[in-house]
Amino acid sequence: MQRRMGCVVRHEAEVDSTNRQARLWAREGAPDGAVVVAARQTAGRGRMQRKWESPAGTGLYLSAVVRSPLPPEKLPCLTFAAAMAACDACRALGARAAVKWPNDLVLEGRKIAGILLEREGDAAVIGIGVNVRQRLCDFPEELREKAGSLEMLTGRPVDLSALERGLIDALGNRVAQAERGEWRDDYRAMCKTLGAPVRVIAADETFEGTAEEMDETGALLVRDKTGTLRRVLAGDVSVRGLMGYVDRDRA
Ligand code: BT5
Fold this sequence. Notes:
Blueprint: E1 9-12, H1 18-27, E2 35-38, E3 59-66, H2 77-91, E4 98-100, E5 104-107, E6 110-120, E7 123-131, H3 150-154, H4 160-179, H5 184-190, E8 197-201, E9 206-214, E10 220-224, E11 229-232, E12 238-241
Parallel strand pairs: 1-2
Antiparallel strand pairs: 2-3, 3-7, 4-5, 5-6, 6-7, 8-9, 8-12, 9-10, 10-11
The structure holds biotinyl-5-AMP (BT5).
């Protein structure tokens, strides 16, 4: 059977953003599972108009077009599928990565990867950026406390093509799992935010508490200091550990 994810893979030396390119491609009829990979992004982006640092040859920048049978309200679970896929691919290299709710991958308390899920018509576009070769000095000053790369943190060389293949395969498996509605248990097991003290930073308020659970929609349930359980939706907020970006002793 022909594989779904990565059925066509476009490799580009440089693009503005693989998500933007995948969205254009989706509009032109890219098949389900089509993937764009770039060696460098000049306008890599994160959520909420934030920037994703994407220097040449140091990271994996990849976006997949997914034409999922999931109803639109369930598509956000593809973010969780992608975070698990990135985690699988990094763990296959021996890196003890974990997921930080909702869309980050962390290793030793540092962010090594991020996920950006967007919609283009009926299609979903899943963007994944993984830091592979950066040294600390390669990151802009403001990220040096919280960002890291696979090679920097494991001390071992990483074959970018092998990581790309591993990530595409893992993404295929995790998307299929999410479409069967079975993503939650594995995500909870990989997610280091659960049980941890967190600071929730929303547009209109910031509060602290303990992340107790994640519900079946993927919302985080945080017990605040007054004892109230508050439902926090991915997309609206940033969540920080209280001892740095994530709690390092839990990485
Ligand atoms: C994300 O957003 O983490 C999603 C990143 C998705 C990037 C991929 S690369 C392939 C595809 N094409 C794209 O254009 N995007 C996707 P968010 O949770 O909003 O985090 C963004 C924040 O992470 C920034 O504001 C910085 O603080 C930090 N950051 C930026 N670049 C980073 C890097 N290379 N490593 C670690 N942290 C970074």
